Amino acid sequence: MKIFNFVKKFIFKYKSSLIVFLFFSIIGWLMSIIVPYITGNYIDLLLQSKDFKVIYDFTAKIILIGITTIFTSFIVSYTYVKIQTKSMTDLNFYVLDHVTKLPILYFKGVDSAYLNQRINSDSNTVVSFVLANMLDILTNALTIIFLAYISMRINAKLTLELMALIPLYIFLYFVFRKPLYIRGYELKEKQNEFFSKMNDNLQNVKVIKLNATFKVETERLNSAFEKMFNSLLRYTKVSYLFNSSNSMVTTIARVIIFFVGGMEIINGNLTIGDFTIISSYFSMMIGSVGYFLNLGKSYQDALVSYDRLRQILDEHQEINGTNRLEGIDTIELRNVSFAYDNSKKIIHDFNYEFKKGKIYCIVGYNGAGKSTLINVILGILVNYYSGEIYYNSIEIKGLDMYYIRRKIIGVTEQEPKLVNDTIINNLIYGVEVYDYKTIDKLLKDLNVNIDKFHEGLNTKLNEASSNISGGEKLKIAIARTFLKDPDVIVLDEPTSALDVVSIEKLKSMLTALKKEKIILIVTHNQEFLNIADEVIDLNRISKKVECLV
């Protein structure tokens, strides 16, 4: 029930398609019930009558039922795929949205390929389980009750002897329930780990080539495969034993049908047509009972996926308040400290106030905490620091920092990530208001020659943006930050891939913009120190920040 409650909001979102799916599924179920009954009566009528009208009537009924079944099967399959795909995607996006709002340190040591594969496969499993079984549970229950009633009316003795096997079916499920869950969970984990290793192999192809570590990578893949393969064998063994036990019960049922049924026919207590009906109906009942037992097995599989999704969703999201700002005039840090995993503090009792109209340069050796300080200021590490941070005298933990970073903060990272899309779509990524005149001016100011690209702004960047230079990539990222026209501009090592001319142009742009903005620059470049109003030297910090003004 908890799996159904978890998934229903994603499935019920498509009510009209769901109604069509349920309606035609019921029609298809009724057709499956009617055919054996009509067939049994037809056999008895043929044995009793030589009237060709019986054949014509039966043939017409079978044709009508066949056409109806084909039509309903198509509608059911089509709507199932439609609902299943959309619902699974919605759940997938729901979990991914939650993941993106988890504290940044959650991702430390997390394999992104493994996590993505896990979310995708588990979302598919739980949605498919609920959608496939929400009606089947009812129809299979009705099948057992309805067909048992009809069979009892035809021959109670044979029906009761057959139904005595049902408790054995149920017993077998409870024997295998826990082993199926344990082995199923283990298999899913090993599969995700194996596919993650395969993904790593493709992502690191350049490193593999440079170091010629083909054999090492093959050994890593083989090791992951062996773990997955052994897990698969263990799961297959338990699954086969469960299925074999069910097959044994089914074989016993067939023996009873043919032995007891044959005796009843010879004794005149059962017609051949009725024997056919009971035989068909009991096969359907066994199928329905088997469905409920396999439901137990598939439930264990779905429960594994549900528990793994729940494990992710139970992780607490990072702090994000509700208050919104439409502008930022000051950012103040009071006694701010930060350390990774209870290690030595990278930032200790940091006190500082950043004001609009100034350029601030943050300098320091590698590992001094420059990027960490930026992440603390921007609220990326909001769950982990101690002390207080204020935007316009409002504590950051009460602010909607998602809104603020989206609207009025612009950041260019040292190694900017561009999306696998066109240059223009990378420029306007996350930018809500823009015009092409401004874009052209920014690119010109940053010394970007778009004409060199065959399709200009519509040139598509390939994976990892390898069809443009590092400098062009950085300039596109800087242009995107400026196009956003934020109140706070953050540039992390903006000169790392720029030539001298581009650096001078960028300095001029920053100087022209600073009046209405707070500009933070992480840099080693002396040229930017020359335009800074204040320099924060993290090398000189012991217990409090020292500034070179």
UniProtKB/TrEMBL annotation:
The chain crosses the membrane at residues 18-38, 58-81, 126-152, 158-176, 238-260, 272-293. Its main location: membrane. SUPFAM superfamilies: ABC transporter transmembrane region (SSF90123), P-loop containing nucleoside triphosphate hydrolases (SSF52540). One of its GO terms (cellular component) is plasma membrane. Gene3D superfamilies: ABC transporter type 1, transmembrane domain, P-loop containing nucleotide triphosphate hydrolases. Residues 331-549 form the ABC transporter domain. SMART domains: AAA. GO terms for molecular function: ABC-type transporter activity; ATP binding; ATP hydrolysis activity; ATPase-coupled lipid transmembrane transporter activity. Residues 19-301 form the ABC transmembrane type-1 domain. It comes from the Bacteria. Keywords: ATP-binding, Membrane, Nucleotide-binding, Transmembrane, Transmembrane helix. It is found in: Cell membrane. This is ABC-type multidrug transport system, ATPase and permease components. The lineage of its organism: Bacteria, Bacillati, Bacillota, Clostridia, Thermoanaerobacterales.
